[in-house]
Amino acid sequence: MSLLEKYLAKAEQEVERKTEVVLIDGDEWSVRSLTFEEERKCYKLAEDKEGNFDGFRYNDVRLVKCTEHAFPWNHPELLKKYRAADKYELPVKLFNDNRAAYRELLAAVRRVNADIKTEAETMDELKN
Hints:
Oligomer: single chain
Strand content: 5-15%
Order of helices and strands: HEEHHHHHH
Number of helices: 7
Helix content: 40-55%
Number of strands: 2
């Protein structure tokens, strides 16, 4: 099998992702790992207009990306009720009265993505 054939075949394969279920207030939240592409998007979405990195937004973006397969973060009514400009503003608003739940979900996000390097770590590794 040539290199081209190998990667053409690989494009057809389903990507296996780690998944963890977290119980929050009696509800099951499914948290799945990010793809490399999704992780890069998370990093970019966490930058402000001047390119400064916002660690809080990064956590919120990752939490949304890891759970959006099972929770409708972008539902118009949800955004309106919580007065959120976008789905990435929702985690802090949704869990405002239950910070322990937010921390638990974020811990699950970190666990399922423990083997994924951030954009900055990847860039540092490539430089060396």
